[in-house]
Every structure is written in C-alpha cells, then in structure tokens.
Specification:
The protein is built from 22 helices and 14 strands. With 597 residues, the protein is of the alpha/beta class. It has three domains: 86 residues, Gyrase A, domain 2 (2-Layer Sandwich); 269 residues, HUPs (Rossmann fold, 3-Layer(aba) Sandwich), CATH 3.40.50; 183 residues, Isoleucyl-tRNA Synthetase, Domain 1 (Orthogonal Bundle), CATH 1.10.730. The chain has a five-stranded parallel sheet with strand order 7-6-5-11-12, with helices on both faces. A four-stranded antiparallel sheet has the order 1-2-4-3. The longest helix has 25 residues. It is globular, with a radius of gyration of 30 Å.
C-alpha cells in the first residue's frame, strides 16, 4: 500500500469518527505540499467543513490530531486555512529508500501470461522518400509509449505499416525510369531511401514545369494538374502495378528494396524497432474486399462511375471515398484491411495509432467504418494524436526537398555533442572509443529528450543548439548527472564501501534529503500516469526534477567525506537509487545514459 492510500484511509476514518461522515477513498483530496510550506503531503479540508460545522482551521486541527494519534507515519502537522500539511516521519522515508534500493525493477510492473495485449502502430513511412524530422518525433513517441505501457504490465506489440504502393511511389519510379540512367545506391554512394527520395523531388520539379506550361497556354491550374503528361503517366503506371505488370512490379520491388535497406539503418541508429511490419501492398486487397462486402450489404454506395462511398452524414460527418472510379484504393481502404488482419493475427485488447493530428478526421472515420462493417473493436481504437514538429526556420516540404533528413540530423547532433563535450572538458582522459560512444549517447540523447519532454499533443519547435546544452532541462544535463553519480559510486567501491541497507532508521536526515527520497517514491505513480495519458513528457520532466534536486543535494552535502558512517551509508544508497531511477526513466524514453563522462 502506497503512502497516499495509507493516509487516505486514515483520513476516511477520521472524518467518520469525528463527524459521522462516510467517504470513499477517491473523495479524499491529497496533494504534494507546496515547497514554501512545511510538510510532505497536504489534505484538502474544505469537503469536510460542512459536516464538522466548524471553521476550516478548526476542522484541519482536529483531523490532524486524529491522524497523528492513529498513524505513526505522521510526525507533525500544521494547518493553513483549509489545508492540512502533514510531515511524514524520517523513519518512513528511510524504510522506503531501503525498499527502493532493494528492488532492481522499482517502478516497473512486468507483464504476466494473463496480461492484456496492446498493439501500438508508429512510423508508417512512405517508400518514396527518406525519414525526416517529423518521422523522428513519431518514432520516438511510438517507441517510448510502447516501453511505458510494457512498464505498466501490458503485453505490447510494436507495429509498422509501410505505405509501399500508390501514386507517390510511382512518381519516384517514373522519374528514375526517365532520368535515372541506371543509378543505384552502390553507383551513387547514396542510401537507398535518399536515392528514391531524390527522384521524388525530380518528378515534382518536372511536373510543376509541365503545369506552368499548360497554364501559359490558357488552362486553369486545376485542369493543368490533372492533364499534365507526367501525372497521367504516373497514374497509368499505378494501374499497371495493380494489374501485376511484370516490368512495373520488378522496378517497384527493386526501388522499395533500396528504401527498406536505408530505413533499417535509420531505425537502428535512432534506436527504435518493431515486432511486426505490415505492408500496404499486402493489406489493401483485404480492405477492398471489405469495402465490396459493405456495398453488397448496402453499408456503402457505389456510384455510376464505379467509385464507392460511405455516407457518414448521419454521424455528423460527410461522404468518404473508399474506392476510386478506376478501382484503385485509398488510404482508408488500406487501413480497414490492415486493422482486420491485425485483429486476426493478435488477441488485441487495445489498438493505438501514433499518427499526427492532421489525421484526426481520418481516424474518426476509420473507427466509424469498422463499426459499420460489424467489427466490435471498431469504436475502441485509440488515435494518439500528436502535434507537428518544426525547425526555427519554419515548416518542411517533402516535394520541394526542404525537409530535415533524419540521418543528417542525427549525424549533426552527434558531431555537435562531440565538439561541445570536448570544449567543456567532459571527454578528458577518455579513450577514442569512449569519446565516440559518449558523443553518440549525448547527441542522440539530446535529440530524443528535447522532443519527448514536450507535451506530445502540442506543436513544437526543435532547436538543435538548445537541445545539447549541459545545463537546464536537457538530455545532456541528465546524462552528465548520471555519470557524476556513477563516478561517486566507483570511488566508494575503491574505498571498500558497499551499498547495503540502511540499518539505522533513527538517522536524522535533512529536509532536502527527505524530499529527494519522496521524489523517488513517486516514480511508480509517474509511470502509471504516463501510461494512462500516453505521455512520455511526464517521465521526462519527472526525471529532470529528480536530477535537479539531486544536484542541489550533491552541492550542499558531502558524501564520501561525511564523518558520520550512518549518514555516509544513507547518502550512498540514496545516490545509487537515484542513478537507478534515472537510468530506468531514460530507458523508457529510449535514451541511454553513460557510466562516465
């Protein structure tokens, strides 16, 4: 039973005994005491004032006296207006620290054979371009959410749907066929996804030139976009693909193979992975089949031109295209098929889509369509909608080749971390291998932490220079603190000191030290809340708060030079437990922490 539950139960007993008021545990309002007041936990008294028929101050005083008399965990209390501030005994904090120190998996709830399964989809790239900064936020959020849900006792399947077919890939294929001159990743020295992305940009430039030419001849922009020879040829290629044209299929397989090899390198460097990958080319037929079933059952309507639509006006939406007049499918068709295959493959309790907020409407429609098709899990789908990420310079545009490439950004972050660390003397006495390892950990840690510390539902601006600062709410600040603690622990080991349980629970520790222990005890509840809200930011900002408090403690108190052996032992256990929580918390964000810096 945690501290809040323990206190809550005694408060329930107090108000029933004193005032005859029966309450439920969830009605007891407990919160952390504000730092400017004395105390650890605060009970909000106002809900009991009417039953007590006394002032908030008198009511708080009576409840406080009852709590102190009936629970040894409480050492003292004070009342400020309608708030009862409780000070928890140091004996409790010392015993709590022993429990944390003894538990290598503190805060983690392991899944069991009976645990429910959550499938989390993230990444979802198109095979016509490399991953960029927007994909980085998606992948980092998806991976971290998966790790957090695992820590909350879920079985988790991390999945990816690769959009490997459609007009977008045909644009790259057509441009390569026209102007590629047989160029390959090997002949060009480019990663395969970069090479294919290059021809996507080539297509767009040539397509825009054709549109301009047609408009110069008097055609409207809308008509020019539809009539440009390049787009007509790309559409013809897509139809040939759907009819299994051998030449088109061979080119498609070749260029997609280049892209997959490139993606694998990027995913590995970013530190994300997947348990199951689905491909649109394999799921869209299942989706078409479901749409056709919907037509037969009069769920969807087929128009005279052959296109199929879902009328969602009764649901407060509009009409949604499901199949084009030429029989080709749209993203919605593919998502219907993918959802069905996934539920056939796994006993999914909760399906989570990590997709940007520009797709809110899409997933609202998908949920309704699956429900109309008779899939009972349709309405329970979760769209984890996150905000867009931009650079200080503004938005990125794939077609114009102005995106921030994920590979280039990671390389730049690692190089900047190396230069910054060397300038600050963080790499002194490190071997060349250690320097490379630290530069990688700090560079990628900076990138990941800066993105994940922001409320995922908000748009954000990624500033590389700010992210790599060794001070403030940054990855390097946290990583350096972990390395600092490990250095202290290594020196303690060299002096023959062990990190055993605190035997003297009558030790007198400072308010700052007890607050640090209190922060550690909150870790499990932070993990639980982060899982409920799908928010890695809660973990990130908790770890920053913990690190900030530890650094103040480190500045104010001696550890290895402390003469009182009991206090020295306490501070070593406190330090090791803090390092362990930092490492676990950062791991839930997909971030490694160095042993030395």
């Amino acid at each position: 039973m945690n501290l809040e539950t323990t206190i809550g139960i005694v408060v329930m007993q107090a108000v029933e005994t004193l005032y005859g008021l029966k309450t439920e545990l969830n009605q007891i309002q407990l919160q952390k005491t504000k730092r400017e007041f004395e105390g650890d936990l605060t009970v909000v008294i106002f809900p009991f004032v009417k039953a007590a028929r006394k002032s908030p101050e008198q009511t708080g005083q009576e409840i406080g006296e009852f709590l102190k008399l009936n629970n040894s965990v409480i050492s003292s209390f004070n009342v400020i207006k309608g708030f009862l501030n409780l000070t928890i005994s140091q004996n409790y904090w010392l015993r709590a620290l022993n429990d944390i120190h003894a538990n290598a998996q503190f805060g983690i709830t392991a899944a069991t054979d009976d645990s429910d399964l959550m499938m989390i989809e993230y990444s979802s790239p198109n095979t016509n371009k490399p991953l960029h900064l927007g994909h980085i936020r998606n992948n980092l959020l998806g991976f971290s959410i998966a790790e957090i849900q695992k820590a909350n006792g879920w079985k988790v399947v991390k999945t990816n749907i690769v959009n490997d077919r459609g007009i977008h890939i045909c644009k790259s294929m057509l441009a390569w066929k026209k102007w590629g001159k047989g160029e390959t990743p090997e002949s060009s020295g480019l990663k395969g996804d970069h090479l294919v992305g290059k021809y996507y940009v080539v297509f767009d430039k040539a397509y825009k030139a054709e549109i301009k030419g047609l408009m110069d001849k008097g055609m409207t922009e809308e008509d020019a976009k539809k009539s440009a020879p390049l787009i007509l040829e790309a559409q013809k290629m897509l139809l040939a693909w759907e009819k299994n044209d051998s030449e088109v299929r061979h080119l498609w397989e070749t260029m997609n193979g280049w892209v997959y090899a490139g993606f694998d390198i990027t995913y590995k460097k970013l530190g994300v992975d997947f348990d199951q990958i689905y491909y649109e080319s394999e799921t869209y037929l299942e989706g078409k089949s479901e749409v056709e079933r919907g037509v037969k059952k009069d769920i969807f309507k087929q128009r005279e031109d052959g296109s199929v639509w879902a009328d969602l006006t009764a649901d407060g939406l509009d009409e949604k295209l499901l199949l084009r007049s030429d029989g080709t499918s749209v993203y919605m068709t593919q998502d219907i098929g993918t959802a069905k295959l996934r539920y056939n493959d796994y006993p999914i309790k909760k399906m989570v889509y990590v997709v940007g907020n520009e797709q809110n409407y899409h997933f609202q429609v998908l949920s309704i369509l699956l429900d109309k098709l008779g899939f009972e899990w349709g309405k329970s789908l979760v769209h984890f909608s996150y905000g867009m990420v931009e650079l200080p310079e503004g938005k990125m545009k794939s077609r114009e080749g102005t995106v921030v490439d994920a590979d280039d950004l990671m390389d730049e972050m690692i190089e900047t971390a190396r230069e910054t660390s060397q300038e600050l003397g963080k790499l002194d006495n490190c071997t060349p291998e250690e320097i490379e390892d630290i530069a990688r950990l700090v560079g990628l840690g900076s990138l990941k932490y800066f993105i994940l510390k922001v409320d995922p539902r908000k748009n954000m601006t990624f500033n590389p220079k700010e992210s790599i600062d060794f001070n403030g709410n940054t990855g390097p600040f946290i990583q350096y603190t972990h390395a600092r603690i490990k250095s202290v622990l290594r020196k303690a080991t060299e002096q023959g000191l062990g990190f055993i349980s605190i035997e003297n629970t009558a030790l007198v520790i400072s308010e700052k030290e007890s607050y640090l222990v209190q922060l550690l005890t909150e870790f499990p509840s932070i993990i639980r809340l982060a899982g409920e809200e799908f928010s890695p930011a809660l973990i990130a900002n908790y770890i920053y708060e913990l690190v900030k408090e530890y650094n103040q403690f480190y500045h104010d108190f001696s550890i290895l030079k402390e003469e009182n052996e009991g206090l020295k032992q306490f501070r070593l256990v406190l330090s090791e437990s803090t390092a362990s929580v930092i490492k676990t918390g950062m791991r839930l964000l997909g971030i490694d922490v160095p042993e030395r810096m």
